[in-house]
Amino acid sequence: MKKLVFFLTVGLSAVIVMMVSANKSTKPPVVSNPDILEPISEADLLRLADGWPEEQRDGALKALRESLEKSKNISDAPVKVKVGEYDYVVPMNYLTERGGYSNTLDERRSLSARIFLPDYHGYTRKNFIDPFHPDRIDLTFYGRRGNNIQTADVLLDRSIRFELVEPESKTTQFGLSGYESLHSSDIVWIGESARGHHIFMECSRGTENEICRVQYKHQKNDYGIFYYYHARHLPQWREIDNKVNDLILSWRRNAQGEETLN
After folding, report:
1. Which of 6, 61, 155, 204 could serve as 200's disulfide partner, Cβ 3.0–4.6 Å?
2. Taking a C-beta distance cutoff of 8 angstroms, is the pair 86, 92 a contact?
3. Domain spans of the chain?
4. What is the pLDDT of residue 14?
């Protein structure tokens, strides 16, 4: 069960997670928040290894110890990057799960980050070593020409026109309107966010690893957004969407100033 979530996450992240690629240094990592270096005990490692089948446990424990060693490189130093038309400054521990000392990334069309509930922080040593962390949000956001993500309303209209979902909502939950998939057990949810825009969300059902995938174009703030998390957090969908946008906008630096963003 846990392995499926891991491979789903790693498979997508292999495409979208951008590793540090410039201005490398041999200096020790900069840490302004000591909480990200919280200590990890042998009991923590054994607890995580217990989640693996018995015949794989020794190998899992070895991999966890290797990750623990790499976690010493975690830093929250600011990283500068241009995504599409805008500049961003992002704490390093949101950007990469393997640490690094670079403070500049190459210009790109999209950027990926990892966010952890309930505090919406990036990687710490403790959550770093857990590849199946149940409270992780995997985020990618795109510049204006980064991809073809459309608004939630367009995405729903296309899903109905191409007979992917039922044409009418037959269920509501947590302030969301649900449209049943015509080809699987999935359900598409449409809702109005705390900021007033609509979100498009697909949630898997009937499996042990239920994932909710959110995507839409944020027209006012000029970016496309894609993120996913475990479906058990669905009741928090509006808070999660608001906090994810808060983070993106807090990272953005542009000529207009952040006060114009919503």
Report:
1. 155
2. no
3. 2-260
4. 35
